[in-house]
Amino acid sequence: MDIRNEITAHDIERFHTKALEFSSAARSLVLSMLVAGFEVKRKPDNSFVTSVDLRVEDHLRGLIHLHFPDHGIIGEEYPPANPQAAYQWIMDPIDGTEDFVQHLPTFGSILALHYRGEPVVGVIDHPVLDMRVSAAFGRGAHYNSRRVTLTDLDPSAIDGTERVMLPARANFIKYRDDGRLFDTLTRAHPNHRIFRTCFTHTCATIGTADATVDYGNPIWDFAASRILIEEAGGKFTVVRTWDVPSLGWVYGSVFGKPTLVDRLVRYFKKER
């Protein structure tokens, strides 16, 4: 039995509605701070953090605590709140901060609600692109206001021309891989695109990418992705996990149209 069936239909609808409201509030704040200007700093791991990351996460935490005071919160920029709660809101206020700093529009804001570790609601919003994908358990996935349904590929038609999205080669090298797996994937699927943001997750959800491989992500980077993909009719498979000091668990995953996902997962099994 799927543990998410314990949640009433009314509550799922209420959570989804609030997640969209929270996402809209985050979008407004991001766009206003883009115009007003923002500060940029480096974290100890040399990655970027901006005043927008901090302000948006702080604002979202306040909204969640106001409406759901018994729920927990996990975010990239601040320590967890109420970590023992059954319901956990998980967020990345600006996914792709480096893109954001460089004024590339492919950054996004990620927000999800999990119940006992299972995703219930997910939203990825791209404020500058005016793109938003959302999903709720048992209610399908939507791109802006349009219902999204992925059409699977014919296995006999998979010939390397499929649109596969990948992270940078550096992601593979950083987490116990010498780059051979990345090289194998790019050779097998020459019609690939390389991004390092949740834009690839959005593309897999709406079908503009046939599948996405992401590698070396903490929970907040893909908290919304499984519910988005599965509710759209796709498949989401975790292929790697690592426990990284000071960061926690990070994951490698493959998701999108089921037949191609199964094909891509085989490369990871061969490399074990």
Element layout with pairings:
Elements: H1 9-36, E1 40-42, E2 48-50, H2 51-67, E3 72-75, E4 87-95, H3 97-101, E5 108-115, E6 118-126, E7 131-136, E8 141-143, E9 146-148, E10 164-166, H4 169-174, H5 180-188, E11 192-194, H6 199-206, E12 211-218, H7 219-222, H8 225-231, E13 235-244, E14 248-256, H9 258-270
Parallel strand pairs: 3-4, 10-11, 10-12
Antiparallel strand pairs: 1-2, 4-5, 5-6, 6-7, 7-8, 8-9, 12-14, 13-14
Keywords:
single chain; 272 residues; alpha+beta; Fructose-1,6-Bisphosphatase, Chain A, domain 1; D-Maltodextrin-Binding Protein, domain 2; 2 domains; seven-stranded mixed beta sheet; five-stranded mixed beta sheet; 9 helices; 14 strands; 36% helix; 30% strand; globular
Radius of gyration: 18 Å
Distance between the termini: 31 Å
Q: Per the principal axes of the C-alpha atoms, what is the gross shape?
A: globular
Q: What is the number of domains? A: 2
CATH class of the largest domain: Alpha Beta
| Average of the residue pLDDT scores | 94
Give helix % range: 25-40%
Count of helix runs: 9
The CATH topology annotation of the largest domain reads as Fructose-1,6-Bisphosphatase, Chain A, domain 1
CATH superfamily of the largest domain: Fructose-1,6-Bisphosphatase, subunit A, domain 1
Q: How are strands sequenced across the largest beta sheet?
A: 3-4-5-6-7-8-9
